[in-house]
């Protein structure tokens, strides 16, 4: 995967967001991080993707699939590392 193939919407204060980022970093997975606290357009996008809910982390993959608040096991399955 190339940079930008995966986008993680989240916030620094979000423990699940930090966990997801750590999981990706430990596996060398490249992603784009968008902090919704510093990007009002990102809040709108997260709410659009989650039918009005502001659920983070919201992770968007190049194939158009989305994982919301995924566990490490769900991330591993999606990345093919399970």
Q: What distinguishing features does this structure have?
A:
82 residues, Glutaredoxin, four-stranded mixed sheet, 37% helix
Average of per-residue pLDDT values? 93
The coarse overall form would be globular
Helical/strand content category: alpha+beta
Describe the strand arrangement of the main beta sheet, using strand numbers. Answer: 2-1-3-4
Percentage of residues in helical conformation: 25-40%
Query: What CATH architecture label applies?
Result: 3-Layer(aba) Sandwich
Note down, in words, how this protein is organized.
- The chain is built from 3 helices and 4 strands, in the order βαβαββα.
- With 82 residues, it is of the alpha+beta class.
- Helix 1 (15-26) links the parallel strand 1 (6-10) and strand 2.
- The longest helix has 12 residues, at 15-26.
- The chain starts with 5 loop residues before the first strand and ends with a helix.
Summarize the entry for a quick read:
By secondary structure, the protein is α+β, with helices and mostly antiparallel strands.
Secondary structure: elements and pairs:
Blueprint lengths: L5 E5 L4 H12 L5 E4 L4 H10 L8 E4 L4 E3 L3 H8 L3
Parallel strand pairs: 1-2
Antiparallel strand pairs: 1-3, 3-4
GO biological process, one term: cell redox homeostasis
GO molecular function: electron transfer activity
InterPro entries: Glutaredoxin (IPR002109), Grx-like_ET (IPR051548), Thioredoxin-like_sf (IPR036249)
């Amino acid at each position: 995967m190339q940079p930008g193939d995966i986008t993680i919407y989240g916030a620094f204060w979000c423990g699940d967001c930090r966990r997801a980022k750590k999981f990706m970093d430990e596996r060398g997975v490249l992603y784009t991080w968008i902090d919704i606290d510093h990007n009002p357009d990102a809040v709108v996008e997260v709410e659009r993707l989650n039918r009005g809910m502001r659920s983070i982390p919201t992770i968007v993959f190049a194939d158009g699939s989305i994982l919301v608040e995924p566990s490490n096991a769900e991330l591993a399955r999606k990345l093919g590392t399970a």
